[in-house]
Amino acid sequence: MQPGGTKSWVCRVQKNGNRRDFGLGSASKISLAQARERARQIRTWMELGLDPLFERRKAQGVPTFKEATAKVLTAHRKTWRNEKHEAQWLQTLKAYAFPHIGDARVSEITGPMIRNVLAEIWLTKPETARRVRQRIGTVLDWAYASGYRESEAPMRAITKGLPKQPKKDGHFAAMPYSRVPRFVLKLRERESFSRLALEFAIFTAARSGEVRGASWDEIDLEEMRIGVQ
């Protein structure tokens, strides 16, 4: 019986010292015979070493990767920075993942299938590939947590099976000194704290990390100088 007074059927199974309870439905809608049949099926799955939650999800219909992506987007909608970020999140999957695994059931997606998605862009578009990998992992993590997959996606193992991505070496080319005044005027048209930080770096010749980590006790406004701790 629930705290509110409603009654429901529960199948309690104990195996290897662990107890698990499985809901069988409301007592007002499910007969005793139906509840017993559902309990019998659960015990059979347990005896076979299968996860009853996963098997019940399969019977109800496992979503495709596209369908699971839609559910993940809905679940995370309130946490997106803005609509543009959500659109970018979806676009990477539509462009690179959907052509390969979009119509596959999330329960059927394997490590080799994910590796094939990433292999095409792993070296040519390394940053995009990393984002695709992370977003595929997010969708499959949701599928696992929802009972649609028997195991988590082996994302780390998949990465190890791909070649090492090239690292970006060197620094960005410096802007010619003659163009700096015009650049600063253009920069001042923007309204953001990052614009102020960049202008501060330009006029003080401070490094990026020094500017981002600066505190007021390092800045002497009377003497017009800064001292990095």
From TrEMBL:
Similarity comment = Belongs to the 'phage' integrase family.
Q: Which organism is it from?
A: Sphingobium fuliginis (strain ATCC 27551)
**What PROSITE patterns does its record include?**
CB
Q: What is the name attached to this protein's record?
A: Phage-related integrase
Q: Which GO terms describe its biological process?
A: DNA integration
Q: Which domain of life is it from?
A: Bacteria
Q: Which Gene3D superfamilies does the UniProt entry name for this protein? A: 1.10.150.130, Integrase, DNA-binding domain
Record keywords: DNA integration, DNA-binding
Name the Pfam families for this protein: Arm-DNA-bind_3, Phage_int_M
* Gene Ontology MF terms in the entry: DNA binding
* All residue ranges annotated as the Core-binding (CB) domain in the record: 63-144
